[in-house]
From TrEMBL:
Gene3D superfamilies: 3.30.390.30, FAD/NAD(P)-binding domain. Residues 327-394 form the Reductase C-terminal domain. This is NAD(P)/FAD-dependent oxidoreductase. It holds the Pfam family Pyr_redox_2. Its cofactor is FAD. Residues 11-308 form the FAD/NAD(P)-binding domain. Keywords: FAD, Flavoprotein, Oxidoreductase. GO terms for cellular component: cytoplasm. It comes from Nocardioides agariphilus.
Length: 403
């Protein structure tokens, strides 16, 4: 049911990412004219995360380009923006929250608290210069460190690690990737496609080491030493990119249902949590997906947008489910990729690659992940006309020859 805009209690959004910024935009553009507030613990208005590891590190634009809206937009659209104001508690029974020592009421509450970088104690306790990449300040510090001739070790060969490696090489940084799995992105892409990403980075001068075991990390003052499979790798600094952890502390403390396996706040397909009047969107939402037939938590840009649109529609009085298939993209060197779908916990039993693959530019190809003859995910590399076809095929049962 749409909130009564004549009531004094606002719709409150907790979070400072793309999901929060998109939600308030959709509400105002959808005609909601009642009170609206955003609380974020960061000093900036809501902003997108992808530019932190893409455009900004590549000097393609300032970090301000990542803002969903400039700060003035919020006042102009009567959105009460509270920056540097962490919410410390929520009380769903009384529709209240506490922030900066003050308690305020809400009519509806949307949790968009996102994720935080997963830390590696071995690195944090080493005394070395360690970088993580999750927030505005992280990107500023990392960009300042990417100087020509410097040496960077990246622990973790996931999307963040590979994108930073690509940016670092563009600045003349010597890069070594240390990945414990058999290939970077192995769990997501499987042997054949993951090996293509490893080859791409090696072709651009990155020392990609897979299946490694890190024995120790220590600072020597001027440099950092990493013990890798009995060998010492000496660098100037480290980037740790070993994933993210959904920030569900507020939800847990308030007694909302949190899924132990995914770590996300459980919601139905409309993004409603177990508490009346409380919604969860973006990274933290482990949402029932009516198309995939299971609950799903996704940490990607497009999901944040789609979740925000769905909740905005529901708050405006429209009965809307989250039906969009998961989607993400990456840019590395001259390779651009878009991926649709999600194999889920059951994974895939077949990978089909069609087209030309190549070391230096990634080639141009499509890849399909299947389970029991059903396409559970699809991806293109440098084939920008393919994405609509991929979307139409994911979820269907196909004859492999037809791919």
């Amino acid at each position: 049911m749409a909130p009564d805009s004549t009531k004094s209690a606002p719709i409150v959004v907790v979070g400072g990412g793309l999901a929060a910024g998109t939600l308030v935009t959709e509400l105002r553009e959808g005609g909601y004219d009642g009170p609206l507030a955003v609380y974020t613990d960061e000093a900036h208005p809501p902003y997108e995360r992808p530019p932190l590891s893409k455009d900004f590190l590549l000097d393609k634009g300032p970090l301000s380009n990542a803002l969903v809206h400039p700060q003035d937009w919020y006042a102009e659209h009567r959105v009460d923006l509270h920056t540097s104001t962490p919410v410390t508690a929520i009380d769903p029974a009384h529709h209240q929250l506490t922030a900066a020592g003050d308690t305020t009421s809400y009519s509806q509450l949307v949790l968009a608290t996102g994720s935080r970088a997963r830390h590696l104690p071995l690195a944090d306790d080493s005394g070395a210069e360690v970088h993580y990449l999750r927030q505005w300040g992280d990107a500023e510090r990392l960009r300042a460190a990417l100087t020509e001739g410097s040496r960077l070790a990246i622990i973790g060969g996931g999307w963040i690690g590979l994108e930073v490696a690509s940016a670092a090489r563009s600045h003349g940084v010597e890069v070594v990737i240390l990945e414990m799995a058999p290939q970077p992105l192995h769990a997501v892409l499987g042997d054949e496609v993951a090996s293509l990403f490893a080859d791409l980075h090696r072709a651009h001068g990155v020392d990609v080491r897979t299946g490694v075991k890190i024995g120790g990390i220590r600072s020597t003052g001027d440099s950092t030493e990493v013990d890798v499979d009995g060998e010492t790798v000496t660098v100037d600094r480290l980037l740790v990119g070993i994933g993210a952890v959904p920030d569900v502390s507020l939800a847990e403390a308030a007694g909302l249902t949190v899924d132990k396996q995914s770590g996300g706040v459980r919601t139905d397909s409309r993004l409603r949590t177990s508490a009346d009047g409380v919604w969860a969107i973006g990274d933290i939402a482990n949402a029932d997906h009516p198309v995939l037939g299971r609950a799903l938590r996704v940490e990607h840009w497009d999901t944040a947008i789609q979740h925000a649109k769905v909740v905005a529609q529901n708050l405006l009085g429209n009965d809307t489910e989250h039906e969009a298939l998961p989607y993400f993209f990456t840019d590395q060197y001259d390779l651009g990729m878009e991926y649709v779908g999600n194999p889920g916990p059951e994974g895939f039993d077949q990978v089909v690659v069609r087209g030309r693959t190549g070391d230096h530019d990634g080639g141009q190809f499509t890849a399909w992940w299947l389970r029991g003859g059903r396409v559970v995910a699809g991806m293109h590399v440098n084939d920008w006309d393919a994405i609509d076809h991929i979307r139409s095929v994911v979820g269907t049962v196909v004859d492999v020859a037809d791919l």
